[in-house]
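Suppose a colleague, Dr. K., hands you the sequence of a protein chain of 314 amino acids and asks what its three-dimensional shape might be. Before reaching for any lab equipment, you can write down a predicted structure in token form. Begin with the sequence itself:
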Amino acid sequence: MNSRRHFPILDVFRGLSAAAASLLLAACGPSVSQPDSGRRPERVVSLAPGMTEIICAIGASDCLVGRTSACDYPPDIVRDIPVVGAFGSPAMESLLAVRPTLVIDTDLEDESVAATMAAMGITRMRVPCATLADIPGAIEAVGLRLGRATRARELAENIRRQVAAAKAECAQRALSERLQVFLEIWNDPLMTVGRNSFVSELIALAGGRNIGDAVTNREYYAVSSEWVLAQNPGIVICLYMIGSGPGDDPGAGALKLVKNRPGWEVTRAVRDSRVHGGLNNDVILRPGPRILEGLEALRQCIEGRQQAREKGGP
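The predicted structure, expressed as tokens, is then:
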């Protein structure tokens, strides 16, 4: 766990420049109510990439006045939005400079920041997004708050329908028939996803079995090379940049990287050339409106080998 810095209100005042202090005083009025017809729109800061994507997907990007350095999509919109800090960790002076009335996050690195914002008259909206089922609800909650309930409901219902269809399809295939998947989110140290992660749910919906489900109390965690070898996964999916230049094939790079690890050449994934790279990790690891794209990307990685087995392949 990272050490957390606290921002008591008096320390914040002492640390600000005169200009920023003036902005703070201007921001200390009452927060704007939920926007109804005729009411002034919110000035929103998003502290999570998934929330930024939701705000833009429901057509509320005109409300967005601040984002984090991790909020990079959609690029044609966010490039003009000021950065006010890191994921879940706002820089208070930058935050005050954009005069927000509402801050939307999934989790704060330092929860004491919420009290600081409240003292400044800034409303905080925490939107849980830890499970796959949370995502449609998060879209609807943000849409309701920002006056885009209709668009948000349409988007949320589409996700629910397609997830339900994927669950129905998966129910027809026995667990023992599904290939074991090692989702490698980082290589040094080796990191994967646990059963508590919505990404594990995506792997199951895509037709695979996440070997990381052996750990039930964490979303993401480090594993040893020996542990992975003992599981002998049928598919390895690498979710990080591989290659030294723009012309490199990330798929071939991933296979070479994994194959060259001591002992990994005997795994089913390497023997069958089922090591995948070059995926857009944001659509897989980021809970938001593009989650169905993530599901489809995982399905394409898994189904190729699965279909070969169904046709009598090895």
